[in-house]
Design goal:
- It comes from Modicisalibacter tunisiensis.
- The protein is an alpha/beta fold.
- It has three domains: 124 residues, HypD, alpha/beta domain 1 (Rossmann fold); 153 residues, Rossmann fold (3-Layer(aba) Sandwich); 43 residues, no CATH class.
- It is 41% helix and 17% strand.
- Helix 9 links the parallel strand 5 and strand 6.
- The protein starts with a helix and ends in a 7-residue tail after the last helix.
- 51% of the residues are buried.
């Protein structure tokens, strides 16, 4: 516990918060792009420790939340086919498509299985050679190496009954899209430490230089986040825009070369639609041409992207950092984790779920 608790020391947190307060002289708006960081901020009240001039905005840091509804619909349709086993991370099972979710499909008789790793899906395929096994591969760069390894090993073993329905997304292009928005108000970023553990942080260097925004690689404990905020504010006050890595106990500049190698072997960069946000160029990963035989869209038909339906849920605006979950009139009343209207309340990494769990339902004026 020591290695966790030392990053949750209350006295050290107050010291960092005081240093931020002494440094700031004008309003600054920072964004974290990581659902784990969002939950830590809300759980530990980090935003409440900061001076009023420093605002934290929650970005599209929940990969489950940004998976397009059409991919959920496709997964449900595939799961409903005879002889198919659909494997998925557990947090995808309750993500709503246009007409239900994977849990509902399982209740209707579909063989939908929650797995902890794509290698579990590989084992399911080995044990069920007469059935088609499909793994719903979603996530940021963090989960991409393990998903790539599943396809790599299936190819090595000649395992022809495994395929992947891939909806991977990449963080830097999403940051670029946010900064390119005409109403952008983000002046600095806390970069997701787990993404940088895989990818390193070299790809952030041109972003910081081009847009003149500081980017600080940040971990997930309270002191990590406060250190990231402090370094971001210090750069902004000094007129600097650089990439810093105080999370060096985990992250290296070049990332994990072994993980990057298997990703480069199995995946290729493609355009991707983000749920609640829209199309972002070069923001996704799809299977490389050499792995086309393991692409579920080749086996079961392509995902037909359509215009996303609109409704009462404002999760798209929450994902873009335009508003907080509590700005939604349905938050905590018509929308709860038990009866969610949108993905940011469904996912364990969603901002709405974090606010509901740790902040409760806000009082509303009549």
């Amino acid at each position: 516990m020591r290695f966790r608790d030392e990053y949750r020391d209350g006295r050290a947190a107050r010291t960092l918060a005081d240093a931020i307060a002494r440094t700031v002289t004008r309003p600054w708006t920072l964004m974290e792009v990581c659902g784990g960081q969002t939950h830590a901020i809300v759980r530990f009240g980090i935003d409440r420790l900061l001076p009023p001039d420093v605002s934290l905005v929650h970005g599209p840091g929940c990969p489950v939340c940004v998976t397009p509804v059409e991919y959920v619909d496709k997964a449900i349709a595939i799961a409903g086919r005879a002889g198919v086993i659909l494997c998925s991370y557990g947090d995808m099972l309750r993500v709503p498509g246009s007409g239900g979710d994977l849990l509902a499909a399982r209740s209707r008789g579909a063989d939908v299985r929650a797995v902890y790793s794509p290698l579990d899906a590989l084992e399911v395929a080995r044990r069920n050679p007469r059935r088609e096994v499909v793994f719903f591969a979603v996530g940021f760069e963090t989960t991409a190496p393990a998903n790539a390894m599943a396809a790599y090993r299936a190819r090595q073993e000649g395992l022809g009954n495994l395929s992947l329905l891939v909806s991977h997304v990449l963080v830097p292009p999403a940051m670029r899209a946010i900064l390119d928005a005409p109403d952008n108000r983000i002046q600095g970023f806390l970069a997701a430490g787990h993404v940088c553990t895989v990818m390193g942080y070299e790809e952030y260097l041109p972003l910081a230089a081009h847009y003149r925004v500081p980017i600080v690689v940040t971990g997930f404990e309270p002191l990590d986040i406060l250190e990231g905020v402090y370094r971001c504010v210090r750069q902004l006050e000094a007129g600097r825009a650089e990439v810093e890595n105080p999370y060096s106990r985990v992250v290296r500049r070049a990332g994990n070369r072994t993980a990057l190698a298997v990703m480069g072997e199995v995946f290729r960069v493609i355009p991707r639609r983000w749920r609640g946000i829209g199309d972002i160029a070069d923001s996704g990963l799809g299977l490389a041409h050499a792995y086309a035989a393991f692409d579920a869209e080749n086996r079961f038909g392509p995902v037909a992207l359509d215009r996303e339906a609109t409704g009462e849920c404002i999760s798209g605006r929450v994902l873009k950092g335009e508003c907080k979950p509590t700005d939604c009139p349905a938050f905590g009343t018509r929308c709860t984790p038990e009866h969610p209207l949108g993905v940011t309340m469904v996912s364990a990494e969603g901002a709405c779920a974090a606010y509901y769990r740790y902040r409760g339902i806000p009082a509303r004026s009549s």
